[in-house]
Every structure is written in structure tokens, then in C-alpha cells.
Specification:
single chain, 182 residues, flat
Amino acid sequence: MEQNISYDEAVKIGVREGIKYIKEQEYYKTKKRYDRRLRNTRLLLKHYRGLKIHNKISDSSTNAIYEKNAVDVLDDIEAINDEEQYIQALSRTKIRTLIIVGHINKAMKYYQAICKSEGKIKERRYRIIKYMYIDPSKDEVVPTYEQVAEHFNVTVKTIGRDVRGAIEDLSILFFGIDGIRL
């Protein structure tokens, strides 16, 4: 059976399918950005202690290079350009790291206040994240879910649920609108 559709109907169908395709692509792009923000939030928390240590190390490295640079000026003028570039690169990295660590610290303070006002479950989420990622530890290793569950006297499933919930909350504080699943 042959169906004849008019040119106008074919255009309408094509436009409708095109709009549907564009909406699907936007949805996947937004979902991918949201998933990336969750992953980035988890990575920022996981590496928070290391970022703080980086700031301390880069301070001492930069100072040592400045001290050495004064002597090298007299010995080899060519070396200064490489060292200056190295110092500039260290400074840029240090500044970016300081900004990120400061942003995480502020977000955690807001998150603490939000959690206190929203009840015991949210407060536990904050304490778990702080314990796992923010508070200094002896070996700078993130504790396992089992260790955290034992520390807080809850199940491993509860820890997993609380960490996922806290990371979703913190993604909004870290990344703004991009941290929200639309």
C-alpha cells in the first residue's frame, strides 16, 4: 500500500524529528556535564589533603629556587630564563590550587550549616565527608567505606548512600548550576 504524503507534511515530520534529536543531544550533554561534575567533586574531595600538602611544598620549593637563583645569576645567565619559567609555572599552579582549596573550605562551611539545619541524617553526611576527605589523617589515605562504617557505627550501605548524597549536595556548592541535574 503506497502512502503519498505532501511536501509540507514531510517537512513537518523532518522538523519534528530534528527538534527531537536536538533535545535528546542537549539532554545527553547536560547529563554528561552533571556526571562529570559529580566525578570532579569526588576527585576534589579525594585529593583535598594532597592539594593542601601541595601548597606547603610549593611554598618551600619556590623559596629554594629564589635563593638558588641569586647565586646562579652570577654563574650562568642562560639558566635564569628556564628557572623563571619554572617559577612562573609553579606560581600559577600554586595560585590555582590555593583558589580550589579555599573554595572547598568555604563550600564545606556552608554545607555544615545547611546540614545542621536539615537534621541528623544530613549532619551525619557532613561528618562522614569531613572524616573521609577533609580531616587530616596519619597516612593521608582515604579510609575505606568499611573503616568509616565502623567509625560511625553504621552499615557500609549507609556510608555509600551518605557519600553519594553528600557529593550530589557538594556538587551544587562547588559548581553552581552545572552541579544540578536538570
